[in-house]
């Protein structure tokens, strides 16, 4: 009788090409996604070695980090960004790689368009030169970010050398309370584990909370796995998964679909499988979350006060340095703090469900005068759905403008930078010092919390506004 296995073991072991004694595994990669930031040097590397891309049909390129989110029909003004975008296009064309650049109907954030077009599939191994590749684990895939030299290795060999991570399972049962979203669940987990609590592990999320989530919600959770130090995160595929991927452009069709399903339906953790670490939380205890410091682990329920230094892990000096940067104090309430910017978007929360949630709060209200709001869809598919569902009308009537797809204010690599000293409520994934612009201050939150801040001009519990609308 064969030994029981976790979901992670099943996928990993089936992709091992060679095991190096006392070393890493050589892992075959099913899907390689590239963008303009980490790929130019990798392509230069294979050029200097006179090596072709081994499987160009398994590589997909899209422009996202450096793209402007207004006037995309015009030449990109920033010379560095323009050069990186040009290099991606030239490299993709030279090697016969699918390229979705500015103006292309399929262009968008790499971790949004991958699932939209069925590139992301259950049981696959997926890599990209981007930390938040873990997003694709929502489909029962092993997905993780890689560095530039590893991008070069995958281009040349369609394989990568990786030590096999340990296995962790995080169980959350119960039901999500009113106003709680998948983003809140993820921020709650990170606040409990800290930003290093899952270092060395690949995480499987299990329990009622994740089974009840939509695929988009699961993507948000897996996206943030990296923020607690994990190599990646994954959720066992189920009927929701299969329904989501069916009939998308790059998914199997006909007899190939039946063959794929026969494999996909085996992708679950066996009943007696053992994890290296297992944690369980009560989902009913989670409330809307918000961060108050300079890493994603510095988060709390929005109704709480900022903890005292002696109540948090880590050194008091580092903790107080973080609060000083944020211009906050121990014991402060986050509620009522005036904000300057709101950002809705990124590979974490730039999907249609995020815009639906945002619109549910702002409908019938007006954007606060003191707030600059950047609402950025993750792809043209999302942009089209916003218009088709009437969400754009709601946003426009409330005083908001919709921008064009891209990574936008998630990171300071394009024109959408938060000015120094300004405070932003952001639905993105990182709140490091200067992440959204030099000197900028970031509060990570859900689309509901972002919407509540956008219409009140301050940090506001979205449940208060949801009650008003009942």
From TrEMBL:
CDD domains: IPMI (cd01583). One of its GO terms (molecular function) is metal ion binding. Pfam families: Aconitase (PF00330). Its cofactor is [4Fe-4S] cluster. It catalyses: (2R,3S)-3-isopropylmalate = (2S)-2-isopropylmalate. GO terms for biological process: L-leucine biosynthetic process. NCBIfam families: leuC (TIGR00170), PRK05478.1 (NF004016), PRK12466.1 (NF009116). Catalyzes the isomerization between 2-isopropylmalate and 3-isopropylmalate, via the formation of 2-isopropylmaleate. This is 3-isopropylmalate dehydratase. It comes from Maribacter caenipelagi.
């Amino acid at each position: 009788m064969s030994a029981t296995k976790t979901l992670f073991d099943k996928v990993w072991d089936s992709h091992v090409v060679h095991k190096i004694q006392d070393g890493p595994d050589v892992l075959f990669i099913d899907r390689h996604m590239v963008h303009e930031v980490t790929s130019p040097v990798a392509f230069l590397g294979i050029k200097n070695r006179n090596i072709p891309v081994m499987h160009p049909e398994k590589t997909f390129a899209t422009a996202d980090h450096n793209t402007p989110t207004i006037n995309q029909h015009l030449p990109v003004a920033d010379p560095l960004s323009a050069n990186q975008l040009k290099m991606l296009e030239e490299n993709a064309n030279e090697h016969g790689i699918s390229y979705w650049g500015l103006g292309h109907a399929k262009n968008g954030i790499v971790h949004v368009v991958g699932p939209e077009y069925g590139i992301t599939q259950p049981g696959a191994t997926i890599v990209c030169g981007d930390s938040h590749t873990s997003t694709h684990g929502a489909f029962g895939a092993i997905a993780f970010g890689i560095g530039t030299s590893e991008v070069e290795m995958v281009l040349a060999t369609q394989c990568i050398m990786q030590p096999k991570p340990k296995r962790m399972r995080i169980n959350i049962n119960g039901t999500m309370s009113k106003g709680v979203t998948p983003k809140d669940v993820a921020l709650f987990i990170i606040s409990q584990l800290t930003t290093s609590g899952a270092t060395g592990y690949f995480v499987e999320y299990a329990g009622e909370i994740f089974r009840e989530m939509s695929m988009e919600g699961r993507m948000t959770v897996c996206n943030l796995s990296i923020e607690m130090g994990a190599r990646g995160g994954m959720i066992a595929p189920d009927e929701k998964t299969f329904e989501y991927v069916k009939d998308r452009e790059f998914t199997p069709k006909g007899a190939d679909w039946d063959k794929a399903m026969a494999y996909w339906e085996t992708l679950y953790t066996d009943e007696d499988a053992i994890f290296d670490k297992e944690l369980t939380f009560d989902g009913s205890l989670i409330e809307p979350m918000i961060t108050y410091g300079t890493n994603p682990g510095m988060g709390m329920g929005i109704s709480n006060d900022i903890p005292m230094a002696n109540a948090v892990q880590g050194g008091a000096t580092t903790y107080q340095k973080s609060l000083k940067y944020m211009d906050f104090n121990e014991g402060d309430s986050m509620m009522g703090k005036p904000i300057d910017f709101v950002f809705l978007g990124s590979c974490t929360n730039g999907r249609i469900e995020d815009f639906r949630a945002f619109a549910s709060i702002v409908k019938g209200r007006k954007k606060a005068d003191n707030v600059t709001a950047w609402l950025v869809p993750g792809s043209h598919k999302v942009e089209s759905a916003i218009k088709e569902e009437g969400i754009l009308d709601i946003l426009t009537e409330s005083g908001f403008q919709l921008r064009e797809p891209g990574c936008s204010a998630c990171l300071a690599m394009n024109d959408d930078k938060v000015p120094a000293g300004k405070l932003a409520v952001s639905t993105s994934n990182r709140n490091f010092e200067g992440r959204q612009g030099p000197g900028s201050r970031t509060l990570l939150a859900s689309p509901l919390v972002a919407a509540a801040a956008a219409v009140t001009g301050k940090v506001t519990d979205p449940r208060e506004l949801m009650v008003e609308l009942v």
